[in-house]
Amino acid sequence: MAPLADAFALVFQPYVLMVILGSACFGMFVGAIPGLTATMATALLVPITFFMDPVPAISAIVTATAMAIFAGDIPGALLRMPGTPASAAYVEDSYRMTRSGRSEEALGAALVFSSIGGLFGTLVLVLAAPMLAEVALKFSSFEYFWLVILGLSCAVFVSPGSVARGLISLVIGLFAATVGIDNPAGEPRYTFGIVDLLGGVEFISAMIGLFAVSEVLRAVVLRSDRPEIAPSARSGIFRSQIKNFKRYPTQIVRGSVVGTAIGALPGAGADIAAWISYAISKRFSRQKEKFGTGHVEGLVEAGAANNGAVSGAWIPALVFGIPGDSITAIVIGVLYIKGINPGPTVFLNDPQLIYSIFIVFFMANIIMLPLGWVAIKGAGTLLAIPAQVLMPIILMFCIVGAFAINNSLFGVMIMLVFGIVGFLMEENDIPIAPAILGLVLGPMLEQNFITSMIKADGSFLAFFERPIAAGLGVFTMLVWCLPILLMLVARRRNADPTGRRAG
After folding, report:
1. Residue 189 pairs with which residues in a beta bridge?
2. Which pLDDT tens digit goes with each residue over 181-195?
3. How many CB atoms within 10 Å of residue 29?
4. How many CA atoms lie within 13 A of 413 on its CB side?
5. Measured between alpha carbons, how far is 166 from 173 in angstroms, rounded to an integer?
6. How far apart are CA 278 and CA 365, in angstroms?
7. Are 154 and 269 in contact (CB under 8 A)?
């Protein structure tokens, strides 16, 4: 119990508590601005964490992420502009509730059930992570190779849009990961004679560019005016949630479970969890026809799922060192900077850090309730900030953050290049998440593949000789084959026994 006591001592310090409160307010602010994602909030915090110890640095990211995921529901309900991708799944229902004078009921549901889903996901994280860490200690390069492949595969198949577009995004990220000399051969690749590229593409600069600068460019190019906030009656933020809690207990539990499970898949994330949970809610609802017309049921289930996924994504990040989403990808980078290697050994070498993360997760999802109430009440003023004022401020933060990583203007150049790439990708409906995971997991994929081939003396069969590796390999191949099987089944159902299409 000594590590747990040390963790409480590390978290409940005035400085750490102030960091948690400040990060919560920052996450609320960023998440409530349409187009500014929780990932962007995390990326903008990274330069500040350089000057912090590990516990306050991770506490800042955990708290800001949880707040931003919920806060994205605020502009979605008021303006039909989801603040984060996780809010897009149920934005139609929440916006129509606002139009009918029920905005506080909609936002209250998003707040309360996001908190419940986050607490459930944290409980699963606490119970599952240590047990999985014991299993992970037995992993070799063969198992890690298949885990990375599975993570990249999940990112492609469950990303919004077509599989082809997800694959294009993944290839872009993997290509960027090959730049530099950090490879088994130690040979410069795709540096084009630029000395600064020998160290590879700086991940945080690329992240800020893909998520933040691309949004600034979109605001400049499109120059779209924000609609006025629709007036709504004050029905109470928490009052109606007791009724929703009694009416939809199955949806709450199902959303929390599905969200946490999807979050634990490398490459998924809160936005995918919200979409899948909303689809499941509609599929099993007794009032399917009301979905999309201002019905709170889908909002309850998907709201629980998105914050459950935030906690679930930390399971592969802490246990295997593989990011569950783009946010934990940034966290892994921060841990490396602090001299901490995420993976099963962190449970042995730094148990007090792990317990500190657990405690902060519980605190973040609890303080979300009072801070969320304040955010909802003050949302009208916050969202009234003109875009021509907001976007230059965001760009200034981006430039400072990219420069602070290595105190080099080259980081700013990387940020601007990837900002243009991110803008072009989203304009062509190419998702960004697979590119981010390709950039993070690319070096790990190459390293584990080369290491495994050296161990196996060039034999590919060695990737299936160990039981866990064989299981992961077979499961990954099933994931690859699943879309083809579903397509064949759909065609067979639409055709009669003679091969003609059914009318």
Report:
1. 180
2. 877 777 888 888 888
3. 18
4. 9
5. 11
6. 21
7. no
